[in-house]
Amino acid sequence: MSEPTDKTQDRAEKQRGRILDAAQQCFIEHGFHGASIANIAETAGMSAGLIYRYFENKSAIILAIVDRQLQLLREDIRLNRRVDLAGEMVQNYGRSCTADARGMNAALLLEISAEATRDPQVAAALDHYDATVRAALVDWLTRGTASGGHGLPAAVAPERALLLQCLFEGLKLRETREPQLDRQMLASALRYIVPLVIEP
Amino acid sequence: MSEPTDKTQDRAEKQRGRILDAAQQCFIEHGFHGASIANIAETAGMSAGLIYRYFENKSAIILAIVDRQLQLLREDIRLNRRVDLAGEMVQNYGRSCTADARGMNAALLLEISAEATRDPQVAAALDHYDATVRAALVDWLTRGTASGGHGLPAAVAPERALLLQCLFEGLKLRETREPQLDRQMLASALRYIVPLVIEP
Amino acid sequence: MSEPTDKTQDRAEKQRGRILDAAQQCFIEHGFHGASIANIAETAGMSAGLIYRYFENKSAIILAIVDRQLQLLREDIRLNRRVDLAGEMVQNYGRSCTADARGMNAALLLEISAEATRDPQVAAALDHYDATVRAALVDWLTRGTASGGHGLPAAVAPERALLLQCLFEGLKLRETREPQLDRQMLASALRYIVPLVIEP
Amino acid sequence: MSEPTDKTQDRAEKQRGRILDAAQQCFIEHGFHGASIANIAETAGMSAGLIYRYFENKSAIILAIVDRQLQLLREDIRLNRRVDLAGEMVQNYGRSCTADARGMNAALLLEISAEATRDPQVAAALDHYDATVRAALVDWLTRGTASGGHGLPAAVAPERALLLQCLFEGLKLRETREPQLDRQMLASALRYIVPLVIEP
DNA sequence: TATGAATGAGACTTCATTCAT
DNA sequence: CATGAATGAAGTCTCATTCAT
């Protein structure tokens, strides 16, 4: 009957985090539908029933993961001016296959994209994610070079942003197929194409 | 009792085709795990049990679909010289969301890619598919302009092919998210970038 | 793909019957919520999954049972002129505790009545049942004595029917509590009161 | 460490009361199986765990509720001479659907009666309740008119009491189905039948 | 005394797969 | 060859009950 204290809220948030971490790992490993709640519970080191104290149902977990990725992305964009897009793409390539926080895990992106095809809520969340990335790219392309941008005219920036996004996501997809792709070649290819896209 | 005649083999092949068509449609609509055998059977206009006369199990159907896409692709490559890659990309954009045969359906590509992450057999089949596309692109880029190619030196062709493939697949992924994307902008963007990639 | 034949329909109907019989028994024994699908399946001698080929879910079974009772009642009313209501009440008393078809089982009536308090669909079906009984009673009370009725004026028949129905159901309820109630006393009591109710 | 003082006992009794009130409300609303401990706890404004300090388990709560109803009934009988049974029946009709204390709530009676069919302890408690009502009725019917009774001979009183009880409970059952029943008609019907039952 | 997080059993339900017909 | 009834395993979810705090 007492109001929830900060301490219990903290604990709850921590538990939610544990569950999401476990879920993300399981989803990457087995996919949204291949991963069972029992699976996630075991990975999180708790009983299956307990998960339902923190999430209404399985699809709420999926949504929470998409949302969390969106938060991470936003923070990433806020912190990061991305001066060297090509270099960063190469750097991150193959890294996301482990479940680290930097950039979205490639397999997870696939899973989410596939699910968005069917679940409108996931689609909406993904659209949101998408729009955020696009806006950041356009901003970066149009901003003046003085402030770290590339001074592209507003008329062409959207289409260049689209290209970059396709390239970026195509690369993510490729990560899942050729995680061992020769970095040298990748670097060379990107260093060739990215400047062509972002220079006026 | 009788040896399998050509006629019965034909019939068998036709049945397999019916099943694969139905399965493909169901997989696109509900995903590999969301589509049930009962679903597929109903779509194919046959009983669930009959499917097991033609396929060992559900994942055999998935494999067969990847294989069939590979066949279709090969035939496509054999017939098609692809003189205008950018134009074709725009033309096909958004089309694959309906279950036509030209190019792989975007949602299906997602589904298969995600599944390849877990099932090594699917991964192998997809690698095969992948390599085929890559080889065709490299061939097309290196072949002389006289025979419809672009005469790129062998040293840079692979990396350009990689770029094209990423772009192409990134575009496929985008199809699932923005099927209504402005064709004008897309055409403009591709007409700008593709020549830069394929011209020496 | 062939149309369902009479034979398969027959079988289906027989299976539905088996399931309903088993369900009725289980519901009487453990209540709607105490009886599990596994319970019913075991009683019916089949697997739990099979039940879902014949009924969409558990509450569909409940509804089907209410409906079936209604059918039985209708048939009973059609066949039966009920000349000796009091006698029949005594005769049936205590019989319904076994799951026979004659009159509704007392425990089942309780269960259904309780469920109707919460589930509007059950309530609707029960209302239907209720109205059928009431109409039959009114008809019987108003019909001329020549045709087996009691020639009550239409003005008082409804309230007498209400009394009879209350008495009848109160007696059902009592059956569950005192199945061994002295029949002599019961007969004596009913023979005293019922004529007072139905005679003008 | 300290012996239970009167004060702590009082508090305990008050807590039990709170729990029973909440439980009764929940049971009426959702049934014994549909009402969860969490439900009851929330309604009672306490934690789920605390309930187990006052009741061994859920069915102990059910038993306690039946017992409490019995207490209330006893008190009611002691205070109340019930001069006008029919009038009171009409008065109370439909009232019990709200969770007041006067007479047993109709839905609760159903729930308890149904449960008594399965749980022998509930059956025993209900029998006790039943016998108390019956005895009071018999007493009232046999007592001289001078002391508010009806002076029925002891030979017929039990069967008349039985009739009254059936009528009374049948009416309760009806309350759950037709809470809006026309009071005029009900009054008219009862005024007709009740005197016939209780007059010699 | 009181909380509410945690568990474990068990409920309903779905579905790939088999097999008698 | 073809059907679809049947099974059994597995999945999602709920809830009575316990227990550390």
Automatic annotation (TrEMBL), chains A, B, C, D:
SUPFAM superfamilies: Homeodomain-like, Tetracyclin repressor-like, C-terminal domain. The keyword Transport does not apply. It comes from the Bacteria. Pfam families: TetR_C_6 (PF13977), TetR_N (PF00440). Residues 13-73 form the HTH tetR-type domain. Keywords: DNA-binding, Repressor, Transcription, Transcription regulation. InterPro entries: BetI_C, Homeodomain-like_sf, HTH-type_TetR-like_transc_reg, HTH_TetR, Tet_transcr_reg_TetR-rel_C_sf. Residues 36-55 bind DNA. One of its GO terms (molecular function) is transcription cis-regulatory region binding. This is HTH tetR-type domain-containing protein. It comes from Lysobacter arseniciresistens ZS79.
